[in-house]
Amino acid sequence: MRVLVTGGSGFLGGHVVRLLLHDSTTTVAIASRHPRFPVDVSDDYRISLYSLDLTLEDQLEAVFNDFKPHAVIHTASPSYLDTGRALLKINVNGTKALLEVAKACEETKAFVFTSSNQAVVPTQEPISEGNARLWDETNAPNAYALSKAMAERIVTAANSEQLYTSIIRLPGIYGEYDTNFIPQLMSSMRRKEHKMQVGNDTKLFEFLYVKKAAEAHILAMKALLNPNTRDQAGGEAFFISDGKPQRFFEFCRRFYAAAGSPVMPEETTRIPLPIMQVMASTAEWLYWVFTLGMVKPSLRRIGIDYLNTGCCWSLDKARRTLGYEPVDDQEEVIKGTMEWAMKSL
């Protein structure tokens, strides 16, 4: 089987590629702006690298004509901190272009799109896919949320007997080779800032071990390729998580403890959320004034606002349709993640 993975050199995409290669009959094409082999993956003869701009139809057609994938796993996305223009270009226009070329390729029958908890209006009650609400142009809190919600609608509408499509909705992911969340935790510990907390930490969030995120994408791909399950999986979105909703900073402190730097509740310094929101907005304004928007501050309002959202999901549909099961022992994978981080970061 031939599988095209956009963003296959990144954190999630790299784990998708590694897991795909466990099947000796699978070959993988990694497509991104700057493709490279994922960390700890040797120069495997079963991997092809393609430099690709998702919005350029001629480049897309060249990749599909050469590789002829049976399935596409579309993980590529700009950072949530990127500009609205970049997010619209890749997440919306790029996804639409990729779908059109995939549908025109006779060999391509399955398309799995990586979405986000931020595409959905947040809730503190466990919700199913059936009663989740996507953001739209009238109420989206930021460009990233809107771009993912718009892309979801495009992917769902593209589902057909020519090309079966599914959406995997992910919360914050963590694990080995992380380039975002875990490095931030390590940096906080080294700067002695890991005892700080923004807000009251009352909102519940879902989290997801990256290897289970990769597995969910492959389960969806297989369901779309299987004549017995493709009608149930096609055109559907699936919530995926560890199935253990918890408070954000409480979750972070589990990583600190695994690294040998436990933080007791009475040691925590709480900074009110409104103060951090004002500080972040002020920093962004000052950077915009003095650098004409060319440089961005490390403290961003969108990141602070995220702490006041949360998400709580039911995994019943993913279990029933895809056969997905969350990680058995979250504490064990947290420990393994921090063992990797202490050696590598």
Automatic annotation (TrEMBL):
InterPro entries reported in the protein's UniProt record: 3Beta_OHSteriod_DH/Estase (IPR002225), Lipid_A_modif_metabolic_enz (IPR050177), NAD(P)-bd_dom_sf (IPR036291)
GO MF annotation terms: oxidoreductase activity, acting on the CH-OH group of donors, NAD or NADP as acceptor
Official protein name in the record: 3-beta hydroxysteroid dehydrogenase/isomerase domain-containing protein
Family per similarity comment: Belongs to the 3-beta-HSD family.
SUPFAM superfamilies with a match to the protein in the record: NAD(P)-binding Rossmann-fold domains
Keywords for the protein's UniProt record, in alphabetical order: Oxidoreductase
Pfam entry (one): 3Beta_HSD
Domain 3-beta hydroxysteroid dehydrogenase/isomerase: 4-261
Species of origin: Fusarium longipes
One GO-annotated biological process of the protein: steroid biosynthetic process
Lineage top rank: taxon: Eukaryota
